[in-house]
Amino acid sequence: MKKYLIFSTLVILIFLFGCEEERALRLQPAPEYYQGRALLPNGQQIEIPESDRATIIELCQPDNATPTIPSGKRHWLGTVTLTQPLTDVTSLSAFPTATFFTVENKSYVQCQLDALTYVTKIDKMPESLNDVQYAADAYPDVAKIRFAEPHEYAHFAQEMKNPIGNEPYPERKGIEHTLFHLTMPFNGEFELTFESSDGEEHLTIPIQSSRQPYLSFGLGTEKSDDTLQYAIYTSHDQNDYQEVLRPKQAHMSQMFGAKMASQLPTVLVPGHRYPLYSFTFMNEGTAQRQNVSLTYHEPKLLYGKELDEKIHNKLSSQRHVVFHDLALIGTESKDAPFLQHVGQDEMKFIFRAIKRANATAYAGKPAPTPYVTLFKGVCAQTFDVSYEGTNVYLTNSKTGSHFKLLREDAIKWYNLFGENR
Questions:
Q1: How far apart, in whole angstroms, are the C-alpha atoms of residue 399 and residue 328?
Q2: Which terminus of the chain faces fewer neighbouring Cβ atoms within 10 Å, N or C?
Q3: In this structure, is the dihedral angle defined by the CA atoms of residues 128, 130, 134 and 137, taken in order, positive or negative?
Q4: Residue 35, beta-bridge partner list
Q5: 3-class SS at 9?
Q6: Residue 203: CB atoms within 10 Å
Q7: DSSP three-state, residue 69
Q8: Which residues pair with 278 in a beta bridge?
Q9: pLDDT tens digits for range 266-318
Q10: 301 CB contacts (<8 Å, ≥6 apart)?
């Protein structure tokens, strides 16, 4: 009964999430093939059940996206990342990351797929997150920055002296007048720009990866094996400063020091570049200067027709095909030796051939590898494969409907897969 309810709920998402229903192809949302992991405000990570994975797919419907988020503190409840291990595609996102939060006691989910970001207002939460609302972290709706106090810089300098990594420990030193503290908004990213006579270099501090409202960052040097380099060292609690952001061209022979910018606002306007400090150093016998500035980039919230088209194109382009000897059991089959992934050209052919297949009343004898599963976006469909001579039949594993490939497609299918599979 629970499986039926999940399936019924998700059928309405067919078009917007890259699924399609035309003749033999009847791909449907398939939360059973996902793995879901939630990061909670207390730092705990938990696996989420299939019912919650189905809920997240439903809540991230792009047609419900809102163009704005109300002003006010945003309480982060958790971030869920869904992956689809059966597709064996690690370089592509299979589904938007879902971040749940509240503003003025109203619940929202921010769904993000690569550069696509959208927010929907919701009236329910995944059950796995229901118990964390009282421990939610509060984020401001603007980016704030301040200079470090003298005692905070002294602590930074001391922390930089502490050994990190493996022996022999590198010698680290914090540079005075370069320590700042950020209070980060809920989303977006910060960009540090290093500007010199040779051009500009940019370093990015993504907020999504930190999931903490505060960040301290300062310039420091690190000497190891007679090599001296500078970098940005960051910390969420003003301790350790072990996270490092290093420009590509950061070598030097001597650091002279830094000069802080004379003024800095409390609130950072999105898209505006704010000078922080400049520092000088010696490299290859020449004195050089770098001017460091900071920019906060607020993400553009997509909605309406623009979002529908972009999210549909993005997800529908993520296709994969797997042949298998045994029926798939959700993600438990991800490492099974009977999975046979096909290449891109074969995948395109299989989709095209099935799309052109005609309905028929019967099937042939089971193929040596009797199953094939197609993945597209968040959707999937499994067929039973059978042969009769050079004819190829596909049976929808859910409905039992039979389809016969066109003659030319059947010959190519059999040549590609008949003997080996």
A1: 17
A2: N
A3: positive
A4: 83
A5: helix
A6: 17
A7: coil
A8: 259, 291
A9: 999 999 999 999 999 999 899 999 999 999 998 888 999 999 988 888 877 78
A10: 65, 66, 67, 68, 69, 117, 118, 119
Q: Which residues, including other chains, have CB under 8 Å from residue 126's CB and lie 6 or more apart?
A: 38, 48, 52, 55, 56, 80, 100
**Two structure tokens written together for 323:** 């042949």
3-state secondary structure 272-317: CEEEEEEEEEEECCEEEEEEEEEEEECCCCCCHHHHHHHHHHHHHC
Helix, strand, coil percentages in the chain from 3-state DSSP, rounded to 5: 20, 45, 35
The DSSP result for 15-66, as a single string, is: TTTT--EETTEE-EE-GGG-EEEEE-TTS-EEE--HHHHHHHHHHT-GGGEE
Q: Are 125 and 40 in contact (CB under 8 A)?
A: no
Cα Rg of the chain (Å, integer) = 27
pLDDT at 82: 85
Query: What are the tokens at 249?
Result: 């061209």
**Interatomic CA distance for residues 233 and 190, integer angstroms:** 14
CA distances from residue 79 to 39, 68, 315 in whole angstroms, order as listed: 5, 20, 20
Nearest to 380 by CA among 163, 95, 140: 95
Q: What is the token pair recorded at 15? A: 């078009």
Judged on CB neighbours under 10 Å (0-12, 13-18, 19+), 341 is middle
Consecutive H or E run containing 186: none
Amino acid letter at 135? A
Low-confidence ranges of the chain (pLDDT < 70): 1-22, 88-94, 133-135, 208-211, 331-336, 419-421
Predicted confidence (pLDDT) per residue in 315-362, tens digit: 777 888 999 988 887 766 566 677 888 998 999 999 999 999 999 998
Contacts of 172 (CB under 8 A, 6+ apart): 160, 161, 164, 220, 221, 222, 223, 233
Task: Decide if 414 contacts 368 (C-beta within 8 A).
Answer: no
Instruction: For residues 407 and 421, give the distance between their C-alpha atoms in angstroms, rounded to a whole number.
Output: 19
Match 């938990």 to its residue by tokens: 46
**One-letter amino acid identity for 214?**
Y
Question: What one-letter code names the amino acid at 167?
Answer: E
* Alpha carbons 125 and 109: distance in angstroms, whole number: 9
Residue type at position 194: F
- Which residues have C-beta within 8 Å of that of residue 115, sequence separation ≥ 6? none
